[in-house]
Every structure is written in C-alpha cells, then in structure tokens.
C-alpha cells in the first residue's frame, strides 16, 4: 500500500512541476521581494524545520502552515 501511495505522490509531483513550467502568468512581473515571497520563504524554512522535528512528533503544525501558505502563493501567482 505504501509503495502505491508513494508512486502516486511522485507522479503527481512531477505533473505539478510540469504544469508550473507550462502554465504561468504571462502578465506577471519579474520576481521581486514582496511580503508574499518572504512568507513563502519563511514557510519553506518551517517546512524544513518540521522534517527535523518530524521524528519527535511535533511537525503537524509547521507542515500545516507551510501547506496553507504554499497554496495561497500558488493561487495568487499562477491562477489569478
């Protein structure tokens, strides 16, 4: 069961990366430091820290925060 789930997750990750490369907001400006970018970087750092904390069982909150912020960033920059 775990191997199947891991395979599905891997395929979905590859498809997401391909979609991000193909579908982009052509009207967007060059990347500049904005509060949203800073929030995404902070969330990524929380994500990395959560993997470190994962083995202690306290990673649920940082991963949840990262996921929510990552989804907001993706919607704002690539869908809207």
Count of separate DSSP helical elements: 3
* Global Rg: 15 Å
Strand percentage: under 5%
Average pLDDT confidence is 78
The main β sheet shows up as: none
Number of E-type strands? 0
Task: Specify the overall morphology.
Answer: flat
Topology order in helix (H) and strand (E) letters: HHH
Explain how this protein is built.
By secondary structure, the protein is mostly helical. Helices cover 76% and strands 0% of the residues. It is built from three helices and no strands. The chain has helices at 2-22, 35-54, 60-79. Helix 2 runs antiparallel to helix 3 (60-79). The chain starts with a helix and ends with a helix. The model has no long low-confidence stretch (mean pLDDT 78).
Secondary-structure map:
Elements: H1 2-22, H2 35-54, H3 60-79
Short description:
The protein has three helices and no strands. It has helices at 2-22, 35-54, 60-79. 4% of the residues are buried.
What structural keywords apply?
about 75% helix, mainly alpha, about 80 residues, 3 helices
């Amino acid at each position: 069961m775990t191997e199947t789930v891991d395979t599905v997750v891997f395929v979905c990750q590859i498809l997401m990366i391909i979609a991000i490369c193909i579908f982009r907001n052509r009207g967007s400006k060059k990347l500049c430091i904005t509060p949203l970018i800073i929030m995404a970087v902070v969330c990524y750092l929380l994500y990395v820290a959560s993997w470190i904390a994962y083995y202690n069982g306290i990673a649920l909150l940082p991963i949840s925060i990262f996921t929510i912020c990552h989804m907001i960033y993706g919607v704002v920059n690539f869908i809207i």
